[in-house]
Amino acid sequence: MKKRGWPYFPNSNPKIKQEMMIEVGIETIDELYGDIPKKYLLKKSLNLPEALSEFEVKRHVEASLAKNKTCEDMPVFLGAGCWPHYVPSAVKEIIQRTEFLTAYTPYQPEISQGMLQALFEYQSMICELTAMDVANCSMYDWASALGEAARMASRVTKRNEILVPRIIHPERKATLQTYTEPTDISMKEISYDPETGQLDLNDLESKISDRTAAVYIENPSYLGFIEEHVNEIGNLAHKHGALLIAGVDPTSLGIFKPPGEYGADIVVGEAQPLGNPMNFGGPLLGIFACRDDLNLIRQMPGRIIGLTTTIDGSKHGFCMVLQTREQHIRREKATSNICSNEALCAVASAVYMALMGPQGLRKLGEAIIYRANYALRLLSKIEGLKAPVFKSVHFKEFTVNFDDTGLSVKDINEKLLGMGVHGGKDISKEFKELGETALYCVTEVHSKEDIELLAKLLYKIVRGR
Fold it and tell me: Do residues 281 and 205 both lie within one domain?
């Protein structure tokens, strides 16, 4: 049999390589990388080790991984967008079923009824949790959901300005900027009360105008406190013809008023706490929901799964009832470039919410707020610490300032890590006006002993040195 190179496989055969270069109009492979500045090109050969067998590679990787420490090995008080929560064993077991685990996108409803129903249930529970009318079957993460919400608000209102709080996750803000800049949507920051952290209503009123498409709030805020003026903010937005976009941590909604009850038009958020482990920061799961308004629903990004019946009404089935961006949707008709979703993560969240139920989610919220405020009470007693920085009700996360200790957050975190505890996120560069401040996270996974250990070690670091 005559040997030949397969046309779609990478092939180093010189003859085939030459034919390919002639076809694309180049003389050397280096021309393919001509747009890369020469200063970034490697000017030496790669110093690669000798090849290893599969067994040797496995042993090498396992030895490297053994150096890691996870939240299973030590108390972790780091949150800031991806939080340590307990994932019930049933969630892991169900999403590992091959019917779900191998499913990417349910294009064919006749063979994907189980997956479609699971996503329909996810949407239904998200609507119930947020008190909204319609939800899609997931986005990539909170940040991408926010970017899509801003563009959606601009399309609906025909305006090109978004107002956001000064206290916002900086990476979420950067993603929002990436989404809005190409469409000429401007972004303005609303300042906060330095004592409470609450959104400055006077500043909001001075900046909102007939150019404002939406006002965005986070509740709880990025720094963990509950926004107390949500009704006033919503009324002010609607008075000027703007939409209210609310960003939420869904674990708070078992005990706090859902955004649908204080006038939110669009709700975004992060569903990672609902049955999805941290996984080195991803994949995450973006929540996206809106109220029952045809203009809003038709402008929603992603997909909506619906329940329908046969013509004679004898059987029901599930299908995608709205796809605003797909291979078979004309590009000029699309509302978004989101063409996929986090389906498996959404199924995990659906299983989690079904297992917890309303009472379970309430108990979860209570467990979190009790533990977080117990930690606050202990840390506030340590001389030199200010915990929290803002005089407001905190839910899961809170700020701790170390200015009076003479130590930086970096120093303190290094010392804590050396003692077997992972401290909070250093936000001293994100919010310079807050000084040496860290953002701590406490959830249901933190025991009373974990919290007391943190307080004991911080006391030792700042007072016993």
Answer: yes
Better-predicted residue by pLDDT, 445 or 3:
445
175/237 same-domain check: yes
Last residue of a domain, one of 321, 353, 385: 353
**Model-level pTM?**
0.87
DSSP state of 383: T
383-424, pLDDT tens digit by residue?
Answer: 999 999 999 999 999 999 999 999 999 999 999 999 999 999
214 and 338 share a domain?
yes
Q: Measured between alpha carbons, how far is 212 from 157 in angstroms, rounded to an integer?
A: 9
Q: Does residue 31 lie in a domain region?
A: no
Question: What letters, b where the CB count within 10 A reaches 16 and e where it falls short, cover 376-406?
Answer: bebbeebebbbbbbbebbbbbbbbbbbeebe
Dist. CA 385–CA 462, nearest whole Å = 9
* Amino acid type, 312: D
Q: Rounded distance, CA 59 to CA 53, Å?
A: 10
- Nearest CA to 222 among 80, 84, 369, 85? 80
Q: How far apart are CA 153 and CA 161, in angstroms?
A: 9
Residues 162 and 248 grouped into a single domain: yes
Q: Where residue 403 sits, what CATH number does that domain have?
A: 3.90.1150.10
